Amino acid sequence: MNISARNQFQGTITAxxxxxxHSEIDIALGNGDTLVAVVTNGSAQxxxxxxxxxxxxxxxxxxxxxxxxxxxxxxxxxxxxxxxxKQVVNGPVSAEVKLSLxxxxxVFATITHEAAAALAIQEGAQASVVFKASAVILAVxx
Length: 142
Prior knowledge:
Layout: E1 7-18, E2 22-30, E3 33-40, H1 41-47, E4 54-59, E5 65-67, E6 79-90, E7 94-100, E8 106-112, H2 113-118, E9 126-131, E10 137-139
Antiparallel strand pairs: 1-2, 1-4, 2-3, 4-10, 5-9, 6-7, 6-9, 7-8
């Protein structure tokens, strides 16, 4: 499968919490990294999502927000992945930020050049990516 989403995480479902319309899916990415996805109950059933099932989680880089100081803030976004900035590619309009997570995964975010400058994002700095559970698209082997 070829797909344009920069963030592609292989993981294993650890929990499924069905709701009236959507199900919350907890995913272990390995080495302590985790994320949460929200999908419709119909999708959860059609994909056979259950604990122990391998899954591919996809998130577009443009769905990621970057924070350099998350201390003292409570967020409604379910996914906050802390890491170290490994690369910043600056353009005239946008910047691409690559973070290395403690578990060995890499995550990419595209933000405005202005935001990258305002946050003083640079290689080696601590930062977090923040994204909503509804931004995660799940795929399973057929």
